[in-house]
Amino acid sequence: MTQALFCVFDGHGACGDKVSHYAMNNIQEKLENHPQLMSDPASALKDVFLSVDSQLRKDPSIDAELSGTTAVVCLMRWMKGGKGKAWVANAGDSRAVLGVKENGRLKAVPLSQDQKPDTPAEYKRIMKSGGFVSPPENEWGGPARVWLDANMTLPGLAMARSIGDHLVGAIGVIAEPEVVEMDIDPATDPSKDGPQFLVMASDGVWEFIDSPEAIDLLQAANVTRSATEAVTKLIETAAQKWREEEGDYRDDITAVCVNVTELFKRG
Asked: Can you tell me the mean pLDDT for 114-135?
């Protein structure tokens, strides 16, 4: 049996780079050493996210009161040339999507859901905890945001879950991820039906490209066999969309593409 870990982190706030690097280093290490990694990966992933967030809170070298990071983490496990499983843990608005070929065409299968402040379950938890959620700005396209109070004092966070952002931890912004488990029976070659491609990216990609469009884009460009060509195409297209919509400004763009068919051939 072989396993691999793929992650995308998207920091925000003054110390967002430090928080994202902290999460990157510690999630991998803690997960590798977690006693339930083999027997219960979903529980291990949840425990590791919470443990890293708790440990970060105690680290005096990083101010994570108004800084944090999203985290989407995919653990894949398989037998060489055979079937496997994927566990995807997500906190925030980065996203994982699986490209599955059916009847000769790829379709997008979501492996995570964006946790926005106005998502019904997230909104309910935040309001119940005493937080305040402002609706999306229709005039200029701004997102829904989390605030400490109705006067919108601080922090204006555009996600409902994250690692860090401890100032709003008491009002319902949590580090606990949602975990999706999926059986993976990959296509044996590119001409066959089955899961073929994993795409993971920060919201800088998804701002102007939705999940089906991303998978269609990779298929139309005929780059799904090459992970490097695929991720380059995705990032270049996202950057172009930002130029068209926002001029010189763009959000951080981070993406990972994995050829699942080729990956599962390795052991």
From this structure: 97
